[in-house]
Amino acid sequence: MILNAAVDSAIAIAERRIGKPGEQVFAGRPYVMIQRSFLAFKRSAWFVILSGFVEPVFYLASFGYGLSKLVGNMSAAGHPISYAAFIAPGLLATSAMNGAIYDSTWNVFFKMHHGKVYNAMLATSLGPLDVAIGEIGWALLRGFTYAVGFMIVVTPFGLIPSWWGILAIPAAVLIAFGFASVGMGITSYLKDFQQMEWINFFMLPMFLFSGTLYSISAFPRALQLIIEALPLSQAIGLVRDLTLGQVHPGTLWHVLYFVVMIVAGLIFTTRRLQNLFQK
Amino acid sequence: MPANSSEIVIEATNLKKVYGDFVAVNGINFKVTKGESFGLLGPNGAGKSTTMRMISATLTRSEGDLKILGLDPVTKAPQIRAHLGVIPQQDHLDNELTVAENLYIYGRYFGLSRAYLKPKVEELLEFAQLVEKRNEKVEALSGGMKRRLTIARGLINQPEILMLDEPTTGLDPQARHILWDRLFRLKEEGVTLILTTHYMDEAEQLCDRIVVMDNGTIMAEGSPAGLIAEYSSKEVLELRFGSNKNIEAAKALEGYGDRLEILPDRILLYCNDAEAVLEKVNHDGMKPLTSLVRRSSLEDVFLRLTGRTLVE
């Protein structure tokens, strides 16, 4: 076996990382994980994209045009808006959350326990942070695709009244990032399918009570405070501010909430992967 | 590869791994030199896989010292892993990808370029005799093919050290012989092989040097022939008297050889000249159902050192 001298060896590539921050956990190439996901994805699961995109549109059709007859107009910061325009951002935020949670829980769970894909990856010079960022990055790509699709469908119906609404797409990615980075860490604790059900146990009530379909002002103040602390309510707040064009300093708090969630989630997930596969 | 035959590539000093109260590896010492084929033998739970994982820089040690190619896995794990090819006990192949994609993407995990990988994948498909299977999903492969693919995958980064954890467990004889042949070739190319196995014939075939482990410690170390000379006799006489009569017969056989061992189904008599002992057994009126004269093997060393119903 003759090594082509013009091509870098695995050793030379690994040695370049020496002295760089996080050299023990990060090889600087999460993109190879995304490449793997593309290879795996290209012959399966086109319908996953389709279903992820169709889901919020169905919700919107059902509630927005069915329920709006009963509900009439809503008001947001003193301006009347249609019920559909009220729930559209909630559904976009929820779909970003669901996509990210699906990718970072079920998908990760299978690779961890059935395919043992991560065991093989972490026997190479790749680090756990590469794996975490790569898997989360894939979830974000998918989240981005869903968000763009959703916007393309709903904008012609006048459900995105403000130009700020364009920023709902990066906001959806930010939201997905937050959920995916925490979700992957949590998944690493789960051992069987029964435990996976706990995720739904938390997700469904969060969807029902976080102000997706109606304003949380319907609840007593104490309950509102709890709901506002939950990530989905923060996500809906952020997307709704943007699509309705009601951007204010408080909008940035929502952003900060997700930045903190992302950083904490990445640290948590990387530690977990390291404990599971490298200790 | 420039082979400096005395270059030490792995050095373990008082290496220890503790999980809570359980001591998996209890202060072992060994050295492996470049190009050597080094075997870890021992029953299940002896600490072989734990030792392998510590060498592979995917498991941190609890105590002692470990140097792989002069590097400490605690501080240089990714760099060490770039030098290694790891063939785990379960294949851990990527079931969502094809045979060729498995090789390609594994190379990408090391950061290897497409220009390097394209010809390398072809070469390894050839090596693993999987050229016609290149576009098949991994699930469609037989056990032997999966194992060959796993070995080929472990070679994608031109490793200097190949870590093989029970490389042929569960394979049929043909598949084992093909694998042994591939491993021989690598050895000829100067790759250092570290392997664990349950199969004594495999250890005799492949290993220059062996350590026998039990309960996390090293019981013996040496070449296959050296270990046989040290821990066993030249020949072995195997006698069967029928399942319930072996223990009783063993009492009568006391003193016929250097040592005897009672297995569930037969008695092993260790001696220098098994034919002569068999003649004496027959002459003295004992009637074994079957008898077999054979040379001593590594299996006898293993039985003695890891203590299976030992009668001295």
Word description of this protein:
The complex is a heterodimer of chains A (279) and B (312). By secondary structure, chain A is an all-alpha fold. Chain A has one domain. Chain A is 70% helix and 2% strand. In chain A, helix 4 packs parallel to helix 5, helix 4 packs across helix 11 and helix 7 runs antiparallel to helix 12. The longest helix of chain A has 30 residues. In chain B, helix 3 packs across helix 4, helix 3 runs parallel beside helix 5 and helix 8 packs across helix 11. In chain B, a hairpin with a 2-residue loop joins strand 8 and strand 9. The model of chain B has no long low-confidence stretch (mean pLDDT 90). In chain B, the strands form 3 sheets. In chain B, strands 5-6-7-3-8-9 form a 6-stranded mixed β-sheet, sandwiched between helices. Chain B has 2 domains: 221 residues, Rossmann fold (3-Layer(aba) Sandwich); 64 residues, YebC, transcriptional regulation domain (Alpha-Beta Plaits, 2-Layer Sandwich), CATH 3.30.70. By secondary structure, chain B is of the alpha/beta class. At the A-B interface, helix 1, helix 2 and helix 6 of A face helix 2, helix 3 and helix 4 of B.
| Strand order, largest beta sheet of chain A | 1-2
Unreliable segments of 5+ consecutive residues of chain A: none
Helix content of chain B: 25-40%
Q: Please list the strands of the largest sheet of chain B in the order they lie side by side.
A: 5-6-7-3-8-9
What's the overall geometry of chain B?
globular
Q: How helix-rich are the residues of chain A, as a percent range?
A: over 70%
For the structure shown, list the relevant keywords.
heterodimer, A: 279 residues, mainly alpha, two-stranded antiparallel sheet, 12 helices, 2 strands, elongated, B: 312 residues, alpha/beta, Rossmann fold, Alpha-Beta Plaits, 2 domains, six-stranded mixed beta sheet, five-stranded antiparallel beta sheet, 11 helices
